Amino acid sequence: MLQLLFQLNHLYLLFLKLDQSVPPSVARPADLYQGAPTLGSVATIYGYGCDSRSTLKGAYLGQKQSKQFTVGQKTSALCPGDSGGPVFVNNAIAWIN
C-alpha cells in the first residue's frame, strides 16, 4: 500500500506499507536521529545521481553512492537523482534529501 503522507505544492513524502517483513539479510530498518544535528557534525548522504555536477554524468550514474559533508557548510556532493535519499548523522537518518 502506498500512502501519501504529506503534500506541499510539488513536494511529497510517501510511506510504503509492506504485507510482510523484509528479511534482515535483505535490509534492516534505520534509526531516526533525535533532535537536530549540531553544526560541524559529519553527515553522509546516499543517492543514485551523477558523480560530477558539471557534466551530470559519471561512472557511477545509477549506482548507489555516498558522500560525506559537514553540517552547516556548503557541499557540492548532491546531484540530480539524489533527491529522496537519506542523510545520516551518527548512523541515524537525520534528513531526507
Name its key features.
mainly beta; 97 residues; 37% strand; two-stranded antiparallel ribbon; five-stranded mixed beta sheet; single chain; 7 strands
Write the SSE topology.
Blueprint lengths: L1 E7 L2 E6 L14 E2 L9 E6 L17 E6 L15 E4 L2 E5 L1
Parallel strand pairs: 3-7
Antiparallel strand pairs: 1-2, 4-5, 4-6, 6-7
Walk me through the structure.
By secondary structure, the chain is an all-beta fold. The protein has no helices and seven strands. It has a five-stranded mixed β-sheet with strand order 3-7-6-4-5, with no helix packed on it. Strands 1-2 form a two-stranded antiparallel sheet. Strand 1 (2-8) and strand 2 form a beta hairpin. The radius of gyration is 15 Å and the shape is globular. It starts with a strand and ends with a strand. 8% of the residues are buried. The model has no long low-confidence stretch (mean pLDDT 76).
> How many strands in all?
7
Shape descriptor reads globular
Low-confidence stretches: none
Write down the Rg: 15 Å
- Please state roughly what percent of the residues sit in beta strands, choosing from under 5%, 5-15%, 15-25%, 25-35%, 35-45% or over 45%: 35-45%
